[in-house]
Design goal:
Oligomer: single chain
Helix content: under 10%
Strand content: 35-45%
Largest sheet: 7 strands, mixed
Structural class: mainly beta
Keywords: Signal
Protein name: Major fimbrial subunit protein N-terminal domain-containing protein
CATH class of the largest domain: Mainly Beta
CATH topology of the largest domain: Immunoglobulin-like
Shape: elongated
Strand order of the largest sheet: 1-4-10-9-7-5-6
Number of helices: 2
CATH architecture of the largest domain: Sandwich
Signal peptide: 1-28
Amino acid sequence: MRQNANAHPVMHLTVLLLAQGLSAVSLASCSAVTDESGEQGYGTCDTVTPLEINIKGSREDGLTADIFVYNDDRLQRLDSYQRISINEGTVPFAASQTGKKIIAAILNPSSDTYEWKDISSFPGLQEAESSLKRENAGRLLMSGYARYTAGRAGKCKINMTPLAATVRLNSIRCDFSGEGYKDAVLENVKVYLTNVNTEARIMQQEGFIPKEISNLGGLVESDMSGFSYPEAVFREISVPVGRQTVYPDITLACYPNESIQETAGSPYTRLVIEGTVKGKTCYYPISVNREPFAAGTPEGIIRNRCYTYSLTIRSMGSSDPDTPVSPSDVTAVCSILPWHETDGTEVSF
């Protein structure tokens, strides 16, 4: 079975980066100017650099991007910074001096400032963190960077990837076989994530261990109230689930969790189906991309991945939302792929 709901065309946006810009460490050789769109940049600088930002999975206009230019030397100090609005067909700009540069971009930052004024080097940017609680569930933060020599012909290409991963419930049905439950249905169905990593370094690519955990061991009301967009980790299915397959197409988000071993301080992130069967509350927790419900290598949750599940409920499940079910309780078809692609590894349990 191929999952296509997360397939999106690639949007190539060309941003003219006059690569030195406003910053807490602005250079005396650059003076501030404002273009016709009202965006601020720097005009009297050494060079202009065309910048192509490759975004997979979005065609929306009005996306916000923070552009940083660092000197590519031993200290990697900040050369420029600019916040721009990205729209197809427009050319925002910043400015820079010539020379070897590291050009970094952060798309859809979840804060107006993100304390950028305190980050004066590329190593400092690599330590900057994002909070899932502040993210817009429909416009997840992306980041990327590339090395380029400002002043030469050509353009600098930056491939953007989301910091988060997504967990998608493609379909769900029930097939109870126990006495008295053959035609039972699952009602008041909730779908949510527990043990959610909600803090991560923006530029990090691998080796993620949970830094801040929300919904530890279950759905925690005080944690949920802290989300700007609670639907990022919690949804409901509006109809009862019986033998007929329901396709809710629910997509939740979390930051990566690559814990090698589950411990009290680093629990596995779980997809939980909660509902009532004949008045009894039942839970069906599945540790995402972990045995026995892993697609390929059971390495946990990786940045820029979509984990898609199609589930068949076969038992009364667990008595709590933190005790994982087994394949005898839930039959699962799982696929894993970069969230913008259409084909990926698919495994049935």
